[in-house]
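Suppose you are handed a protein chain with no further information: no name, no annotation, nothing but its sequence. What can you learn? This example shows the usual starting point.
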Amino acid sequence: MALQYWVGDFFVDLSRNQVTQKKQSQTIAPKALAVLTYLAENQGRVVSYDELFSQVWPDTIVTPNTLQRSIAQLRKVLGENSNLQSYIKTHAKQGYSLECDVRWHDETESTIPNSSQENVVDEILNSAANSDIQTVTNSDTNSADRSKPSKSGVRLISLFFGIIILGFIGYKFLAPTQPSPYFFGELRSLTATDNKEHSGIYSPDGEYIVFNRYSEALCSSSNVWAKSTKTQQEIQLTNNVGLYGSLSFSKDGKKLAFIETENCNKPINQMDCYKLMTLDFEKALLAPQSPNLLMECKNSRIAKSTWLNNNNVALLQKFSDTWQLASYSIEDNKTTVIYSLEDGNLIDYDYSVKDDLFALTSVHNDGHHYIEILKPDGQVLSSHQIEYPKEIIKTRFIYPNFTPTSGQLIFSTGRQLFTLSFEGEITNISLPLDEPMGSPIFHPDGKRMLMIKGIWDSDIATISRSQLTQTSAGQTLTKGNNHYSIIERSTLEEDNAIFQPNGELIAYKSRRSGDHQIWITDGNGSQQLSHFPLDSFIYGLDWAADGESLLVNANGTLTQLTLDSNQTTFPLEYPVVQLFQWDSVNNSALLLIRIKGILKFVEFNLTNSEIRIINDKKVKWALKSESGQLIYSDHMGRFWQPGPAEDQLIEALEGKGAAKQLFKIKGNVVFGINDEFQLWSYDLSEDKFELLGNMPKNIDSITDINQTDILLSIRITAKKEVAELTLRQ
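A reasonable first move is to predict its three-dimensional structure. Written in structure tokens, the prediction is:
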């Protein structure tokens, strides 16, 4: 099929999604152009609604409104409406037809003369100006005269070919030039220090980048910094550290907004309180300032504050398990809901100062991901299901940002960049990146963008249970430590190590090959067991009781891997967020899954695919003991077990859960780590609590334990920095 064609006097170019008339070009949604193209291929024929759906949206469930919106967009571009149907005609209860002439570029290409295009134009125009065009109507003309072309006929033929040539010239000179896609230019680090930087943005005038910076000593607490793009001078903007979130400028560039997270003094239903803060940017450039409090939330969570053109601040607010897009009025000190889903959940949003629009990603009640375009008053301009390409796992959340190109967003999956259209179409725009990078944010000039790049380097270590008492409190584990052994080490992430039942192997996940994969080691060497695709993610793995296979939650899907790398995937209607435990004897698994965007704690039967919802609480981790007793921890760090009427709090473990708690159960004994980096045990049968010894302060979690040894995930480095990616045309 040709990539260019004419519909009447409109030039359609599929290679750049544009329609041009009289040098005026408009970019059209790819799906709308696909509708036009299919109608053009069947010019004059009534094409049914079902046929259009099957051709343009194959294997996709869409509503009739989707087709109607595409037709409405095409009619607007072609200068008609539902009453004036000179191009696209509606046939009630049947379909649509294209009623004008269609000329494909393949047909006009052969009419190009050898003379220069400028001379051709002059000759055609002069011929048309000097011709006295006549219509032959004389019925008395004899057959001999009919076989011989008249002067008027010659002129008509000449004019006909002239029009064809003019059409080609119009294509060459009037059709828009091919817009260049995004290409990589130079990638350079802007904050290459021993500290860690994140949440980088440009100031509205493009003269500064602003970011959060924290050091290892401050853990995740940070200060806000600015760096001049001209002089490279760095300026500390805040004078006290805090756990600060993403940053946003007011439209005039004079103030910053961000969210600060703190521990609640008297937690009721959440451990953390959230504060919406502002900072006077102009004053802070002269001397560090203290942020000003605008609003505090103790019973809801807020995230991602963004300054709007009307001087309100947009943010995501979460009550229970559901997110909503809200607007906070600084003047009225009042929050109003902009948008929420009655049966679904929001994922992320971005705001365009230029267009005064929101782009919002969400999960609807059909389980699919959608892109919505909204006005600040909440009016939904469009809503389309996101069409995931094969390069992206369909369960992956995406976090797109606006680009300088109208109707287009951009996002990263880690090592790949993509564009997302307002109609939900995703296009890969780059080769894989060498390092994982966060979603890009464009400079006001549109020629460069900021990205956050970095690596997480963790190792797998083991310690003998008999040596726990020899470890000093607050000690950092290093290679030279005599009490610990590093058993798996790379410059990237190693985690989730677990002992093989009745065997000598250890299974773990690693990024050493570039993506999350499952590896096994016998202590003398490692072997990659899985081969999941680029940008894969793994959240949970567990051995079968016989030690011959593993169950893995890879990309939101449960996959069983045998030791010879064969794999079996188990169908599950909903994406798996976390695999806690696999009972291979009864072939069931404890999972955290997402139903219509809401997290549910469930038990899944792998044999018949039945799901049993255990509860709707915010479960962080869960395991069953050897006797089948269920224990789980919640977002408040509390431990629970089911009771006869309701779940019972394990009072002996009150305050024993750490922020990154991943506890283990061996037999009927629970093991965990508290906030003081102490390993403890709790015997469920005897109701006995015991402190066992100190753990290194750079521990992420205990991942497994047996009669003699403990497996640990140890953080080596966690590097983040702001980088700038220059684009070339």
